[in-house]
Fold:
Amino acid sequence: MKIQSNNVLLLIQFLTLHSLIVLSASQDFDFFYLVQQWPGSYCDTQQGCCYPKTGKPAANFGIHGLWPNRNDGSYPSNCDSSNPFDASKISDLTNQMQSDWPTLACPSNDGLTFWGHEWDKHGTCSESVLDQHAYFSTALKLKTQIDLLNALQSEGIQANGEKYSLSDIKDAIKGASGYTPWIECNNDSSGNSQLYQIYLCVDSSASGFIECPVFPHGSCASSVEFPSF
Ligand SMILES: *[C@@H]1O[C@H](CO)[C@@H](O)[C@H](O)[C@H]1NC(C)=O
Structure:
């Protein structure tokens, strides 16, 4: 009798430990980055770009991805190879994906490669919170909540090839949205630093924007080009 109840206790301890481990492995991140890219800055690099099969995207920011990240700056990736991207799960989102999450990769294609990469690398790490459909629909919904291009334009920051101060760019977005963005730059084919991607942070349940717990590394020049597209 004594031995049996000890065994039951051990079993309970084992199961508790096991479920804690499973629980912590299933959400190994603290927040998301919603990353949007300026198509003009993707395309005017040395590498260039290809317009998708559906035609030239609008001159607007497009989603790059919704990336689970940790407070220490690291991030999980490729978390579940048993749940690969399945385009049939987001067929109702295709039209909105094509306009708000366009691919610019070469060779010209329909976007499924880009979206599949984002799900497989990043999305699978948040599948405890967002299934495939919710991963994409949530990113699309979050994008509509903060109009980055309008925030910049209303402060006179236009995609016209001129240079703008990095702090003016950040202030314009902070002013319009309430949140401090992170700006990532790349270089155009002549080596000028330009506004490439804008990062905003989202809470770990993907319900809304938060101030970023940590910013990525990298730096822009203090004045950056905003190329036309
Ligand atoms: C842009 O060019 C500078 C030097 O010309 C280089 O240090 C920097 O790493 C480049 N940035 C990117 C994102 O390639």
